[in-house]
Amino acid sequence: MTSLSALLLLAIIVTDLYIISTGRLGSCIRATALQGVLLALLPPVIYADSTAEQWFHIGLMSVGTLVLKAGVIPWLLARAMREANVRRETEPFVSLHVSVVLGALLVALGFWMGKRLPLPVPIGSPLLVPASLATILMGFLVLVGRKMAIAQVVGYLVLENGVFIFGLTLARALPFVIELGVLLDLLVGVFVMGIAIHHISREFDDIDTDALASLRD
Amino acid sequence: MRLYLLLGLPAATGVITFFVRRVRFQLTALLASAVIHAGLTTSLWLSAGDLSSGSFLGVDAAGLLFLSLTSIVFFAVSFYSIQYLLRGTHDAPSGLYRFVPNLLWFLSAMTLVTVSRNMALMWAAIEATTLASAPLIYFYRRRSALEAAWKYLLICSVGIAVALLGTFFLGVAASASPADSPGLSLTALINAGPRLPRLWVDVAFLLALVGYGTKMGLAPLHTWLPDAHSQAPSPVSALLSGALLNCAFLGILRFYQVCVAAGEGAFARSMLLVMGFVSIGVAAAFLVGQKDYKRLLAYSSVENMGIIAIGIGLGGSAIYGAMLHAVNHSLCKAGLFMLAGNVLHAFGTTSAQNVRGLVRHSPMTGTMLVVAFLAIGGTPPFGPFVSEFTIFSATIRGGQLWLGALFLALLAVASLGMAGVILPMAQGTPANAVSPPRKEATLSIAPPFVLIVMILILGMYVPAALDDLLSRTVMLLGG
Q1: Residue B195, class by beta-carbon neighbours within 10 Å (0-12 exposed, 13-18 middle, 19+ buried)?
Q2: Sequence-ordered list of residues with C-beta below 8 angstroms from that of A47, at least 6 positions apart, any chain
Q3: pLDDT at B320 > cutoff 90
Q4: Residue A214 burial by Cβ neighbours in a 10 Å radius (0-12, 13-18, 19+)
Q5: Which residues of chain A are at the B interface, by a Cβ-Cβ cutoff of 8 Å?
Q6: Predicted-complex ipTM score
Q7: pLDDT band for position B403 (50/70/90)?
């Protein structure tokens, strides 16, 4: 199953690159939903050789991921986008062309770092750690490169997805309760951020975080 | 059982007060929860038995120390909030009924941080503290408050995501020795200590230091802190500074414990030392000539978090000083933010230049502000002097004279910077007050008074029970 998991991980990196290269917020949100689907497919593919008892655990994790990351969270973001009535990122801090080049560099960096950090016990796919680090780095790039509040939340989600991929190295060690807690925290986090976006759009007429720069020394 | 009560009671009361929106009922529920929480925490002090056995929940010395600080600060804040809410309601009509429930959920989340015995559970609890407190920062529905809340949410959530990565790195490290019980139980990690691969433990500590350090307010990751502390209502600022920063610090300490067990204590200490000195330096730079007195107190928190990090970084007897300083800072800063709330109420501005003649206008608030400033500035006979001196003398005893000199110099700059802002506020004749001088409300001056008396006592001697708890905490940290 190594080739299938490698395919999924590469597809996730492609969605990362798509997110950093597009200025349309709707496309960004759809890409995170797609990324959610890919993430939900990863646990059963990587842990295909599990026992029946472990399958229950992996199935629950997969379904939970699908519902939250491919369903509820993108829906919350799309709603926030409709309410704020914005379509695209017009003037990002880091221009989209530059971010594509940076993105490619970050993928290389992720693979380089992944090589320097060999897992003590090889598990799943050798691509798991590099893909996770690359996704985390690209999430950071979106977070610092964009001005729109929604795009920043998308960056946070991509970052979290990268951490989630890394967490798959431990899927068998972590009790399910805790994974559920992590997912729930993420959901509530995006929910609270959605409310904040709603307030920002009402207060400032747009959700450009440039407007949020009055507090300084 | 008591732990479940400690966690569940504030959470459940929060849900009830979320639906019952009568102010008097909410305030009664808040006070009752604070009293019961303090009572349960006290009962944990009295029971000598080992409560740290659980794999998810348990209380060890470090947990009990920070649980007690959270409980004391919350107790004081809830009494202070009565007056604050009853007089400040016209500013925030729509958010008022959400204040008490959010405060209670915040308490429950902070409690969970202190009683977690599992690294992943502790992570979830720290993230929950962010989510519960963000609406409190946006209590006054102002643009600037919204900006502060947004920065807080985003910066801290990202920081905490980095800490989650660090937690997973520990998990990977633990998977190297499958003989031990798997997962992220603190006890199992410490027992497996010497067998953990050091590279993974080091990277995990760095990620946790960056991630939780963001939330703890260590420079240069502190950027959310002055905004959030200055825009939040004063009781909330008191809780953020007096209790929340400690919880994030506890997160770093748990990783430090694993580092010590894995034989990487020296590496972790050197990182803490660097972050600590950067924090004091940055804070000192922003304290000098600061125009906003609530931001001044916030930068002072960055400074004090730096002092605590340095204490752990120096190791040995300085660790005791660092833990004692955490106690002193919590009590003192919570009191200072409450006093800042009184000043804001009397003068209607957070600009220090527009506040003059505080001692004549509100004698109790003015006097206590000066006294509390002297305390946090490291003047004897107050607690912070003792803890800062303990840390300083550790540098001398360790032969690190240059570090000691740098430490003293930066503290002196920070204190003088604060003095230049606070003392002119207290002196002179009141000119710009929005409310005429009148008798100060007991509930707005009694809580900070009690806290100041406590740090005065801590400056004279450390009670035996506290000394014992601090020593046991130091033992956990390998000092």
Answers
A1: middle
A2: A54, A58, A124, A171, A172
A3: yes
A4: exposed
A5: 117, 119-121, 123, 136, 140, 143, 149, 152-153, 156, 159-160, 163, 166-167, 169-170, 172-175, 178, 181-182, 184-185, 188-189, 192-193, 196, 199-200, 203-204, 209, 212-215, 217
A6: 0.91
A7: very high
